[in-house]
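QA checklist item 7 of 12: single-chain prediction sanity check.
[x] sequence parsed
[x] length recorded as 160
[x] structure emitted
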Amino acid sequence: MTTETTRAPRDRNAVALVRTASATLVLGLLAALLGALVSGSAAAYGALVGTVIVVGVFGFGTLAVNAVASLMPAAALMFALLTYTLQVLAMGLVFVALSGSGLLDETISREWLGGTVIVGTLGWLTVQIVLATNRWIPIYDLPEQASPALAAGTREGGER
């Protein structure tokens, strides 16, 4: 006896990315509002720039890992580790560029920028973990159509 089941689309990575980025943006906007109220416009700009850095770096990394995982699932873990290393390097380069530009401490608060990057990263990771643990991901995929012998419930010799 077989029953018809509806299969939900397996690829929910875009939904997870939008939810994670949205949560991180809300967290960053709250940090910018708090910074503006507590320390002024430099803190608000620092929080906004930190939020853009987190969403940009982690969003691009997530898109890249999802693309590789859909094309070559066997290479997904290796590419994810490489992407994480490149994300850390990219954040470091952004901080070096901001330090060299002279914007830090004059226009952008260094403390609020760093704090927002740390809090935004923790928020991003928390939302990713929550979404990943609440997803139903099958261990294997069943074939779309079973062979006629399997559908009839018979063995090779025709026995039941």
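[x] summary fact logged: DSSP finds five helices and no strands in the chain.
[ ] second reviewer sign-off
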